[in-house]
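Q: How would the structure tokens look for this protein?
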Amino acid sequence: MHADVIVLGAGIVGVCTAIHLQDRGLKVALIDRRAPGEETSFGNAGLIERSAVVPYGFPQDLRTVLQYARNHSSSLRYQPAALPAMTPWLLRYWRESRPNRLAKAAADMLPLIENSVAEHDALIERAGMQHLVRDAGWLEAYRTPALFAEEAAKASKLAEQHGLKMQILTGEQLRALEPSINECFVGALHWLDPKTVSDPGALVAGYAALFVREGGTLVQGDALTLMREGLSWQVSTEAGVINAPRAVVALGPWSTELTAQYGYHVPLLGKRGYHMHYRLGATPLVIPVVDLEEGYVLTPMRGGLRLTTGVELAAKGAAPNPAQLDQSEQKAREVFDFGPRTDMQPWMGRRPCTPDMRPLMGPAPRHEGLWFAFGHNHHGLTLGPVCGRLLAQMMTGETPLTDPRPYSPARFA
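A: Here is the predicted structure in token form.
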């Protein structure tokens, strides 16, 4: 089978890239070993984070670093044996998180964040997925009065600077809005611009169904069989060999397994995270809540109340460790009323993160027709549609919606 473009990876970024390429008249084959939205895109907290105008940087204050070093934080845990191999990446991440560099990263990412909700809205309407999306924003809750006051002041300036809608809620106002929350939280910031998704995997599957309805080809296959044959790229699938002059690598945390075969050693770290679903309590939570001091998110989902953990640093292939999820659940039960676990075992996934907090979006430096679309850090769900549009514009010669140079794969060549 011949196509104009092969897109490898049917997560949120790959599916959206395939749709936008198809919208520009190209014949697109979307390849994955599993069904759309069943890997990293499935397991997130369901936030389309329009308010996330500053990337998640490495903490710069010594107190927080020492707290993480003790390895008892529910926000971040690490496997000691994995740290030596990760040290170069972490050191670069720390350097890139210095105030001036973090500000530059924020400026580079802002055009993508600003367009994230509008790009999702367009696909949600086309795909008929409105029933999965809510407009109530999300809550950033605090346990400590001093920290709440400090962060509220920062957030007010940030909201004014970027034209974001945000309300500062006292503890009483928070509990009036969400009666299921007890007095452990002294207040919260209610960010109103973001949207929330009650089933992220289903949303990606809905976008993929749109792609197929409009003429796209979706096939199961092994991305690691990609090879160059003459002027074409080809990959083996259950439908036979598919070839095309261009191929897009959108495999999330697995992308480097393929790019390394072609000599690209990208510093991509898979930050692990877990989630578990629970039965709703007598007064169900309505708006997602991020417990900033303990590092977990609680989100009402179609499958129950989903608790999503912070970051775990562990060796690739290391066995799951329930400690972080158990600790986060204990902290969440201090605040919220919810029932027992409903999943047989925790879900675990990896967030594909670059040390400079920018994705890789653009042509491979040394291979004609090979394109990269991965490394979206903690914002894959948020950025999928807008990055799909940007990459399609680059590949078809359109004027891009923003300068793509900050995301160039060549910066790691």
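The first strand starts at residue 5 and ends at 8.

The first helix runs from residue 12 to 23.

Upvote if useful.
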